[in-house]
């Protein structure tokens, strides 16, 4: 008998029919003698609908009240799934985040999990019940409802698996595993049998939203066995999905590049003609970080005529605020010539642990883009990834040609 955490995403929970199918799958696993904890998302589109409603009332909705509201999406699906299970004779019980007591900090809309109380769930599991927990939500020490950021049900799933020391955490979604790139953009993308935590973490943080970044971090930290699978495969025809492995465990030879990730949520800001002297980077980025805006890629050009240009990227949602800060602080007080920006950019990245031992990957990437006439605006690298910023209109082309160039379609 194993303890298994299964997380079902929005599409899998998207209609009463689909919820009944999820119930059947859960019932099959239960019938094999396993203890099952299910984590669910809101029905697909529901979280967006709720956020839209809030914005009709307040342009920037109050974060505390927004959490009170968006967390209701998952409160609906836990109850529906519990009903679906009971109606086919499986004893089940729903839990909101607060009822479990998934304790988080108080950063509304992007809270972090601090602790999970397991005793209530454990008692119900031992009594033979299937536990159904609302994903994406928690509660802070004052009892306020919090949420974990978009896609946060993945993190609830992995965190519960860690807290309960589950044998496996299964993430059921609308694709049958992690692919070499988003199959919606490149139909030739191939499913990976396995991918290392390190690579998955890079893929997720570079834009592959199949798993929320924090869920991968959590799984790596607590050594949770994590698998991505489809909730749409018929009984008897289920495949094994993709296993996220610790590198040591993997027996297969690693490909050089495992995947291509992309992100259209970024925007670029450039400060032109800043005096080229010590402290400039700090003077530019200090006010940005004080405003709690995350900065991603940074480049500073070689100075000439005593001045230099400085560019960086931020989340597109923070673009206007970041630009205003630069205009108010840097232009006025540091003496920059101008602040310009570009919201129509995207970041495309190649990820692979094999890069460590194979030189020439960067030049292959740059050559491939050059052959298509795609101009590279910024570059950043780490041991296992190379990212470039290009014009947003080239996103699909860049992903497709890189996918092909690195042989990922074979
Ligand atoms: P859920 O609602 O189940 O959480 P998501 O929409 O969050 O599902 O994640 C699944 C989607 O992630 C897929 O439909 C796919 O389009 C997208 N995706 C992006 N990159 C990848 C990738 N490398 N492999 C698989 N799916 C990916
Ligand atoms: N319902 C939330 C969202 O849409 C959380 C999740 O689905 O993981 O972001
Ligand atoms: Mg998701």
Structure notes:
The model has no long low-confidence stretch (mean pLDDT 94). The chain has 13 helices and 20 strands. The chain has two domains: 3-248, 3-Layer(aba) Sandwich (Carbamate kinase); 260-405, VC0802-like, CATH 3.30.2130.10. The strands form five sheets. It has an eight-stranded mixed β-sheet, with helices on both faces. It has a four-stranded antiparallel β-sheet with strand order 13-18-20-19, sandwiched between helices. By secondary structure, it is α/β, with parallel strands linked by helices. It binds adenosine-5'-diphosphate, aspartic acid and magnesium ion (MG). Adenosine-5'-diphosphate binds next to loops.
User: CATH homologous superfamily of the largest domain?
Assistant: Acetylglutamate kinase-like
Query: Between the first and last Cα atoms, what is the distance in angstroms?
Result: 39 Å
Radius of gyration: 23 Å
Global mean pLDDT? 94
Unique ligands? adenosine-5'-diphosphate, aspartic acid, magnesium ion
């Amino acid at each position: 008998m194993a303890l298994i955490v299964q997380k079902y995403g929005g599409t899998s929970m998207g209609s009463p029919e689909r919820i009944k199918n999820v119930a059947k799958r859960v019932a099959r696993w239960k019938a094999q003698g396993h203890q099952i904890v299910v984590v669910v998302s809101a029905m697909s589109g529901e979280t967006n609908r709720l956020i839209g409603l809030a914005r009709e009332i307040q342009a920037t909705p109050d974060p505390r009240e927004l959490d009170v509201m968006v967390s209701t999406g998952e409160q609906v699906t836990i109850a529906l799934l519990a009903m679906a299970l009971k109606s086919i004779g499986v004893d089940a019980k729903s839990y909101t985040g607060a009822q479990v007591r998934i304790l988080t900090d108080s950063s509304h809309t992007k809270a972090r999990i601090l602790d999970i109380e397991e005793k209530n769930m454990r008692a119900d599991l031992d009594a033979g019940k299937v536990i159904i927990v609302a994903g994406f939500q928690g509660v802070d020490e004052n009892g306020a409802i919090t949420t974990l950021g978009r896609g946060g049900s993945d993190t609830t799933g992995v965190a519960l698996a860690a807290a309960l020391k589950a044998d496996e955490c299964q993430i059921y979604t609308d694709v049958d595993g992690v692919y070499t790139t988003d199959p919606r953009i490149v139909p030739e993308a191939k499913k990976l049998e396995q991918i290392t935590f390190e690579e998955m973490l890079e893929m997720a943080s570079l834009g592959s939203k199949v798993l929320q970044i924090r869920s991968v971090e959590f799984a790596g930290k607590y050594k949770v066995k994590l698998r991505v699978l489809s909730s749409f495969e018929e009984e008897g025809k289920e495949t094994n999905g993709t296993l996220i492995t610790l590198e040591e465990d993997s027996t297969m030879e690693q490909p050089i590049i495992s995947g291509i990730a992309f992100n259209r949520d970024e925007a670029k800001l450039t400060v032109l003609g800043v005096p080229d002297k010590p402290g400039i980077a700090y003077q530019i980025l200090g006010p940005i970080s004080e405003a709690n805006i995350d900065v991603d890629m940074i480049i500073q050009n070689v100075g000439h005529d005593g001045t230099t240009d400085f560019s960086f990227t931020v989340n597109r949602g923070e673009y206007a605020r970041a630009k205003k800060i630069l205009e108010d602080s840097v232009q006025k007080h540091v003496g920059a010539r101008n602040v310009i920006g570009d919201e129509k950019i995207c970041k495309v990245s190649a990820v692979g642990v094999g890069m460590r031992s194979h030189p020439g990957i960067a030049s292959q990437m740059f050559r491939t883009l050059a052959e298509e006439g795609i101009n590279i605006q910024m570059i950043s690298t780490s041991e296992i990834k190379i990212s470039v910023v290009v014009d947003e209109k080239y996103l699909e082309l860049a992903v497709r040609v890189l996918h092909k160039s690195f042989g990922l379609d074979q």
